UniProtKB/TrEMBL annotation:
<dbReference type="GO" id="GO:0006635">
    <property type="term" value="P:fatty acid beta-oxidation"/>
</dbReference>
<feature type="domain" description="3-hydroxyacyl-CoA dehydrogenase C-terminal">
    <location>
        <begin position="290"/>
        <end position="383"/>
    </location>
</feature>
<feature type="compositionally biased region" description="Low complexity">
    <location>
        <begin position="95"/>
        <end position="105"/>
    </location>
</feature>
<comment type="pathway">
    <text>Lipid metabolism; butanoate metabolism.</text>
</comment>
<protein>
    <submittedName>
        <fullName>3-hydroxyacyl-CoA dehydrogenase</fullName>
    </submittedName>
</protein>
<feature type="domain" description="3-hydroxyacyl-CoA dehydrogenase C-terminal">
    <location>
        <begin position="14"/>
        <end position="72"/>
    </location>
</feature>
<dbReference type="GO" id="GO:0070403">
    <property type="term" value="F:NAD+ binding"/>
</dbReference>
<comment type="similarity">
    <text>Belongs to the 3-hydroxyacyl-CoA dehydrogenase family.</text>
</comment>
<dbReference type="Pfam" id="PF02737">
    <property type="entry name" value="3HCDH_N"/>
</dbReference>
<dbReference type="InterPro" id="IPR036291">
    <property type="entry name" value="NAD(P)-bd_dom_sf"/>
</dbReference>
<dbReference type="InterPro" id="IPR013328">
    <property type="entry name" value="6PGD_dom2"/>
</dbReference>
<dbReference type="InterPro" id="IPR006176">
    <property type="entry name" value="3-OHacyl-CoA_DH_NAD-bd"/>
</dbReference>
<feature type="domain" description="3-hydroxyacyl-CoA dehydrogenase NAD binding">
    <location>
        <begin position="110"/>
        <end position="287"/>
    </location>
</feature>
<dbReference type="InterPro" id="IPR008927">
    <property type="entry name" value="6-PGluconate_DH-like_C_sf"/>
</dbReference>
<feature type="region of interest" description="Disordered">
    <location>
        <begin position="83"/>
        <end position="105"/>
    </location>
</feature>
<dbReference type="GO" id="GO:0008691">
    <property type="term" value="F:3-hydroxybutyryl-CoA dehydrogenase activity"/>
</dbReference>
<keyword id="KW-0560">Oxidoreductase</keyword>
């Protein structure tokens, strides 16, 4: 299928809309331009951040292409306030600033509530970097499974020569698993990594408020829900912060650190120090749905689905164009299949609920596939795989 939108390559249109949304975000003074670029590079595996890419293409050329593609340019791109100072100087911002950093070291003992892929990945990163870690699951079977997942990952690291057998054994020895939240009482920082549902997260934070020692930092891994809502379930909102790790948490270098108006500077500083201790790059964001990466990524993915719906592009062709012509590590549909179509719809709905942006209203094709049970790789059927897996068919 010819990949066209507005008479030019659909991939070019998709890229231009993504760049424009990044410029809109930069113009909102939510975070700095360098933070946007850092977040999209490290969170999505891109070689170049969107604002730097505008510079590389050339602002005048970008505006010409946007006119051809019927993309109304962000005000920031047309005010000529764009150049060096705005997007390169992290000090240039007029909106609410993040809490000022204070001296803080990484915690020496960390707790995790959860037993899924994200929880196990965070646990692996913690123990490899020398931190005593306690993982608490809902059931003993889940706790055992999480431990086995971490052990298997450490074994693979040994096989690949990334760690020595002795180092892997020492890391495994730092992990304690169980089912009692009381085991987290002495932790310096506790990370909540349960299902992305508001009621479930609030219940965890209410329980942690009762169990954890005064001054312990309580962090949520949410990527689309409110950090403030989690904090409201406690009597210590100053101690609550967002730490959005990216999957796989053991390898991805970005951590979005979300702070509410009530988050103490010390709390943010401890979360950032932990991220740096794990070899990651923390980017601080005021609390709102999507932070940086999901705010930019999911409208881009939704837009790609819309192009296919309108018959302007084919799934395989658009994936190939975004990978080969624009340097994305994975095309939009391959990425949707990897994330999970149901997860993607849920995130888009939350973004739409908060911002009301038409770009975040899930496309009908996407919701239809979810209704059919075609959720991506986890079911063996999504945009690229046409047949449900045996597991999905049960």
């Amino acid at each position: 299928m010819t990949v066209q939108e507005h008479g030019i390559a659909a991939g070019h249109v998709l890229l231009l809309r993504y760049l424009n949304r990044a410029a809109i975000l930069c113009g909102q003074d939510y975070v700095t331009g360098p933070d946007i670029d850092t977040a999209m590079r490290l969170g999505c595996g891109l070689t170049t951040g969107p604002l730097t890419l505008v510079d590389e293409i050339g602002l005048d050329r970008v505006l010409e292409l946007m006119a051809e593609a019927a993309v109304p340019p962000a005000p920031l791109l047309t005010t000529r306030a764009w150049p060096e100072r705005l997007h390169r100087d992290p000090r240039h911002r007029t909106g609410p600033a993040a809490p000022e950093p204070v001296a803080a070291g990484a915690p020496s003992s960390v707790g995790i509530v959860g037993s899924g892929t994200m929880a196990a990945g965070i646990a692996q990163a913690l123990v490899v970097h020398g931190l005593r870690t306690t993982l608490v699951a809902r059931h003993e079977e889940r706790a055992v499974a999480a431990r086995h997942r971490v052990s298997a990952a450490l074994d693979r690291a040994v096989t690949r020569g990334r760690v020595t057998p002795a180092a892997a054994a020492a890391a495994a020895g730092r992990l304690r698993t169980g089912v009692l939240l009381d085991d987290l009482a002495d932790c310096d920082l506790v990370v909540e990594a349960v299902v992305e549902e508001e009621d479930a997260k609030r219940a965890v934070f209410a329980a942690l408020d009762r169990v954890c020692r005064p001054g312990a930092v309580l962090a949520t891994t949410t990527s689309s829900l409110s950090v403030a809502d989690c904090a409201a379930a406690t009597g210590r909102p100053a101690d609550v912060v967002g730490m959005h790790f990216f999957n796989p948490a053991s390898a991805m270098r970005l951590v979005e650190v979300g702070h509410t108006p009530h988050t103490a500077a010390r709390t943010t500083a401890v979360a950032r120090a932990l991220a740096r201790h794990l070899g990651k790059v923390p980017v601080s964001c005021p609390d709102r749905s999507g932070f940086i990466v999901n705010y930019l990524l999911f409208p881009y993915l939704n837009d790609a689905v819309g192009m296919v719906e309108r018959g302007r592009a084919g799934v395989a062709e658009l994936d190939r164009e975004m990978e080969e012509a624009h340097g994305f590590p994975m095309g939009p549909f391959a990425l949707l299949d990897t994330i999970g179509l149901d997860v993607s719809v849920a995130i888009l709905r939350r973004l739409h609920q908060q911002f009301g942006d038409p770009a975040t209203r899930p496309r009908a094709m996407l919701t239809r596939l979810v209704a059919e049970g075609r959720l991506g790789r986890k079911t063996g059927a999504g945009f690229h795989v046409q047949r449900p897996s045996r597991e999905a068919a049960r």
